[in-house]
Amino acid sequence: MQSSSIALSNLRAFVILIVVAFHSVLAYLGSAPIAAAPFDDPPYRWIATPILDSERWFGFDLFCAFNYVYLMHFMFFLSGLFVWPSLLRKGSVTFLFERIVRLGVPFLVGVYLLMPIAHYPVYRVTATDPSWFAYWKHWIALPFWTSGPLWFLWFLLILHTIAAVLYRVAPGSGEFLGRLSAAANVRPGQYYWRLVAISAVAYMPLAAIYAPWEWVRFGPFAFQPGFSLHYVVFFFAGLGVGVQGLEQGLLGQSGALAKHWGKWALAAVGTFFLWIIPTALTTQGFAFPGLRTLADLGLTLATAANCFALAAGFLRFGAKRQPLADSLSVNAYGIYLVHYVFVIWLQYALLSVAVFAVVKGFIVFAGTLVLSWATSAALSRTPLGARLIGTEPRTASKAQRANVQAG
After folding, report:
1. Could you tell me where the beta strands, DSSP code E, fall in 209-365?
2. What does the domain layout of the chain look like in residue ranges?
3. How much is the pTM?
4. Which one in 167, 170, 220, 372 has a CA-CA gap of 20 to 30 Å to 347?
5. CB-based contact 389:106 (threshold 8 Å)
6. pLDDT classification of 288: cutoffs 50, 70, 90
7. Under a CB-based contact definition with an 8 Å cutoff, are residues 95 and 152 in contact?
8. 3-class state of residue 227 by DSSP
């Protein structure tokens, strides 16, 4: 296996750790509301923070803010890497059918089976009648059907569908996107500024209307209107990089991105403060002229810088096979599908336990990771589970050889 492929496999394992950690500590944010509101009272704040614990630590706020600025964008970027080689190999019809099975079916199962189970403890916190029957009446009376983190699946399926249509009606579009990133291996800084410029055009007009944490929901479908086009940009950026092949493109293990990992790490931290400082001021009620625009621009800089820094670090230091990381990478998709159930139930179980927030956060993270990992591994051993969430075999093309899943 190529070094870049190993690095991306390890990176995928790391990303799922961050996802689990992010959700595990939401109950302990210092900035969260003091107490839970009734389950069926608008604006339904439990969607963002399902369980609210009395133990808090502001360090978790900083951790979540730092990862919020780039994490989903990076997941869309990674998901786009293998799309075009897969389309070339399978054709648009087979590719799209497999995407529907791989993304659409788990989305429906997760939303209509796992999410009601996951959110039952949220209802019990404020319920006068904690029975399942009463909960179900409240659940189906909601004006939406919350999907939790599974919103990523339907949104990704739409992007894969767009890619399949482009391949069918404009087969040269992949090569066009590939040419936009052709020099990224030797000049990642130039590619970074191009990505930032396109991101700003996609993000800032919507950001003037919607805050980064605002959501729109209809039925089981939810999305962030402020981020929606920004996510599209990163998905197709990943698609373009994937056209070049891992070793030849931005993610080449011997490329300039990996060589200058330290500079990208500094850029990630610096641009994060360019976003968090004006954002904190605006949320505190300060209304300096141009402050929100500065925050929006800082986000576009920070998103790309953090993605580049994380990729650079793993290309430089994470290109060694590790059996545990291999297993975590293989089960990353399954973990993503089921982890929210364990997160919420463990947070609920710890509500009356008198320990520090840091300890609770670690317990929820470790317990969720172990239980989700074991569940994913067990499901992948069944015929249906292997079909839906198991490892997808990848036949390598001459442009790209990889065994990393992209969702």
Report:
1. 216-218, 221-223
2. 3-388
3. 0.93
4. 220
5. yes
6. confident
7. no
8. coil
